[in-house]
Write a structure and sequence with these properties.
Elements: E1 13-17, H1 21-27, H2 32-53, E2 57-64, H3 72-96, E3 98-103, H4 111-124, E4 130-138, H5 140-157, H6 170-174, E5 187-190, E6 209-212, H7 222-233
Parallel strand pairs: 1-2, 1-5, 2-4, 3-4, 5-6
Helix pairs in contact: 1-2, 2-3, 3-4
One 3-methylbut-3-enyl trihydrogen diphosphate binds near residues 22, 23 and 78.
């Protein structure tokens, strides 16, 4: 146990924009996909570190809606890798009490990957030590749009609910997002030195603390994850108020 576990400053939800796999591979004269393979080890390490620290939700941005615009070979390799990893990790998830959830535009994923996801989500549904959320084919704007569409369809089907729109608050609207029931991320980490959100949790990240590091994702392991938690523990969150 490290120091931070005993403090009340452990984030409930840590989210990671895993970036820099391609550069990591290129630096070694390898194909970009080698970086993705190595990045899987970082997901494993951070999952373990998060469980050890007492984090309740760890989420990772694995593939954005915009990533569909990458070359076909990279996309298909990533999709195959995703399916394989999800299947391979089930035993570890069960051993460590990790519930796995995939969120995103699943309609764009292939049948084999969707089957692997469903299998793993069903198997791990009862685990309660930590929830690992994989954002796959996700984007923040897509999430807000699908929430608005769901809401509009609901009102069209139930016109008597129309009046409730006037009293709807942001918490109510949050229930239409794919993250319904999941607390907003306390800490969003981005690796590889890029200082942007890349269409990630636009709504949910409204009051997240940000941690940017130059470390490339395949090099981001337990010590780096713990360093981010330690940094978070020193932050003062004000939510617009005066301290
Ligand atoms: C992150 O690494 C993984 C995905 C976005 C799928 P990148 O593939 O973006 O690697 P860089 O940023 O090109 O180095
Ligand atoms: C963001 O990384 C998406 C994921 C980590 C899944 P990108 O590498 O796709 O982001 P940009 O293109 O540099 O903004
Ligand atoms: Mg990138």
């Amino acid at each position: 146990m490290n120091d931070i576990t005993s403090s009340s400053k452990v984030p409930v939800h840590v989210s990671i924009i895993m970036d820099g796999n391609g550069r990591w591979a290129r630096e070694r004269g390898q194909e970009r996909v080698m970086g993705h393979f190595e990045g899987v080890e970082s997901v494993r390490a951070c999952t373990e570190a998060a469980v050890e620290a007492g984090v309740k939700y760890l989420s990772v941005y694995a593939f954005s809606e915009e990533n569909w615009n990458r070359p076909d070979t990279e996309v298909s390799t990533l999709m195959e890798l995703m399916a394989k990893c999800i299947e391979n990790e089930i035993d570890t998830f069960m051993k460590n009490g990790v519930r796995m959830v995939v969120l995103g535009n699943r309609a764009r994923l292939g049948a084999a990957l969707n089957a692997a996801i469903d299998g793993c989500m069903e198997m791990t549904a009862g685990n309660s030590v930590m929830t690992l959320i994989i954002f796959l084919s996700y984007s923040g704007r897509w999430d807000i749009l699908q929430a608005a569409q769901k809401l509009a369809l609901e009102i069209a089907d139930h016109p008597e609910r129309r009046e409730s729109l006037g009293t709807m608050d942001t918490e109510d609207f949050g229930n239409y997002l794919v993250t319904a029931g999941i607390p907003d991320p306390d800490l969003i980490i981005r690796t590889s030195g890029e200082l942007r959100l890349s269409n990630y949790l636009l709504w949910q990240g409204a009051y997240s603390e940000f941690y940017f590091t130059d470390t490339l994702w395949p090099d981001f392991r337990k010590p780096q994850f713990r360093a981010a938690l330690e940094d978070f523990a020193r932050r003062e969150r004000r939510y617009g108020k005066v301290k």
